Amino acid sequence: MKQNIFSREHIISELPQVKKWDVIVIGGGATGLGVALDSATRGYKTLLLEQVDYAKGTSSRSTKLVHGGVRYLAQGDIDLVKEALHERGLLARNAPHLVKNQNFVIPNYRWWEGIYYTIGLKAYDFLAGKLSLGKSKHINKTKTVARLSTLRQKGLYGGVVYKDGQFDDSRLATNIAQTCIENGATLLNHFKVTDLIQDNQKQIIGVEAKDIETDVNYTFSSDLVINATGVFTDEILRMENAQAKKSIVPSQGVHLVFDKSFLPGDDAIMIPKTDDGRVLFAVPWHDKVLVGTTDTNLDDHSLEPQAQEQEIEFILKTFNNYINKKVTRADVRSIFAGLRPLAAPKDSSEKTKEISRSHKVIVSETGLITITGGKWTTYRRMAQDTINKAISLKKLPNKKCQTEHLEIHGAMPTENRENHMYIYGTDQKGIASLIEEDASLGEKLHPRLPFLKAEVIWAVRYEMARTVEDVLARRVRALFLDAAAARDMTAEVARLIASELNRDEVWKLNQIEEFTKLADHYSIEGNRVTN
Q: Do β-strands 334-343 and 360-363 pair in parallel, antiparallel, or remain unpaired?
């Protein structure tokens, strides 16, 4: 029987075969996964360790946009926009099953906005060059209303349509993790780095880590350790130096999810300037509409950040300013918060929306390389810059980057997105064969959502999911689409996982209790309690 390369047991059994790794990556979000992929495809022996699950933090909580950043264009950051637009084009080619060409409409409620935004977006189109997703254009009031039937018509002059990318963030993370393994990397989630190992010269020579599932401790050797832990960057830096200064300020972004009836059709809305100068998006996503985001500086961070009351009110009020079918708190299907790892400001005059979103590669005296900042769209370029930096420091032999035209696991051209299974790309056949073997796996997990029992088995067997949360939050997106429905699925999903992983009744009951508690935080009532 062919060995399943994604099996945790198989991956752990092969660990002793490597005495010393070329590269150890800490962190399994967009950045860490990108670095591991870049490293493995250049031929370096690569190990990635993630303390919880791939994309558990910020990387599953984005606005689901693959974009150049219209806002940064307005701020005059041309280089950042140009780089992001190039990467947007590559990502659309390399993961066409997950990245969709999305129309956005900027509604114009002042006479001059049509001219202003048309000119700005023509520049945006131009910067995309050969990798453009299509041209922007001005449309009149009638056409704007025809495209956005729930849009407030009072005072409306027209709209500007432009193209950007839209995607499923944690599905892409899962597929990148699979691509890493297919290219020879060793990846382990639920595997926490507990310390950095230094030699007598205070140079890093490896890490200590713990398998969270078994409590077994491991020591891994490498002269190159890369810290790609996002908002947890400072925790790793303090392992190296207990007195390390704060380098990251977490900025929180909150999203509310509503039924599609509040924004029917295929177009997204982009509101370029809200009351406090932020950008707000309302984006169709998996037959729902996702509205966000906020930008709130926090002093602290956690794996499960909570939306603040003023953030919820801000999104409800701003969205209602632009639509005639008003949303209420009761209409919120799910609410989630993510943290952006922004570079700590040099002084109090810097505001979060002005702190640069571009990435930084930092080299410590110990040889630790830290990659911070950036965004999902530029994950590949961030990884390339990080590995190139290691090469320039003579920590790795010089080998050329291979990821620019590398297809991500599951890649296939996808026009029809009516059936939710499109996100699996080429893996759809594998899931279909599971249902052929056992017809009961073709049953839906909940009447309000399209997800099937077969997807749970697939997630555990081939996508490294280990818990109910891994499945319902990040392999299928139930928790982010409809928290109450996700809660209703818990017992059945726990039963399916327990059966696949040979877990006992105690494990199953613990999983049900943990996920039920978590799902409460994604509902508006549960969120209110915590504020």
A: unpaired
The answer to whether 355 and 383 are in contact (CB under 8 A) is no
Return the structure tokens found at 385.
């810059």
Instruction: Return the CATH architecture of domain 8-58+171-245+350-393.
Output: 3-Layer(bba) Sandwich (3.50)
Residues 6+ apart with CB under 8 A from 129: 85, 86
Class of domain 420-522 (CATH, top level): mainly alpha
End-to-end CA distance of the chain: 53
Question: Whose structure tokens read 């920590």?
Answer: 395
Name the architecture of domain 97-166+249-343: 2-Layer Sandwich (3.30)
In 440-527, DSSP assigns E strands to 444-446, 449-452
Tokens 């994309």 belong to 55
The radius of gyration of the chain from alpha carbons, rounded to an integer in Å, stands at 23
CATH fold match for the domains 97-166+249-343 and 420-522: no
Using the Cα atoms of residue 425, residue 429, residue 431 and residue 435 in order, give the sign of their dihedral.
positive
Q: What DSSP state is assigned to residue 323?
A: B
Specify the DSSP element, H or E, that contains 391. Answer: helix 379-392
Reported pTM: 0.96
In the 8-state DSSP scheme, what is residue 183? T
Q: Where are the domains of the chain?
A: 8-58+171-245+350-393, 97-166+249-343, 420-522
CA-to-CA dists, residue 169 to 172, 276, 370, 379, angstroms = 5, 27, 22, 11
- Residues with Cβ within 8 Å of residue 384, at least 6 apart in sequence: 38, 401, 403
The candidate with the shortest Cα–Cα distance to 298, out of 241, 358, 360, 344, is 344
Written as tens digits, the pLDDT of the chain (531 aa) is 678 999 999 999 999 999 999 999 999 999 999 999 999 999 999 999 999 999 999 999 999 999 988 877 777 788 888 999 999 999 999 999 999 999 999 999 999 999 999 999 999 999 999 999 999 999 999 999 999 999 999 999 999 999 999 999 999 999 999 999 999 999 999 999 999 999 999 999 999 999 999 999 999 999 999 999 999 999 999 999 888 888 888 889 999 999 999 999 999 999 988 877 778 999 999 999 999 988 888 877 788 989 999 999 999 999 999 999 999 999 999 999 999 887 765 555 445 444 455 788 999 999 999 999 889 999 999 999 999 999 999 999 999 999 999 999 999 999 889 999 999 999 999 999 999 999 999 999 999 999 999 999 999 999 999 999 999 999 999 999 999 999 999 999 999 999 999 999 999 999 999 999 999 999 987 665 444
CA distance 262 to 148: 10
**CA-wise closest residue to 294 among 130, 99, 63, 73:** 63
Tokens at residue 474, please?
Answer: 């990040």
Q: How far apart are CA 120 and CA 136, in angstroms?
A: 10
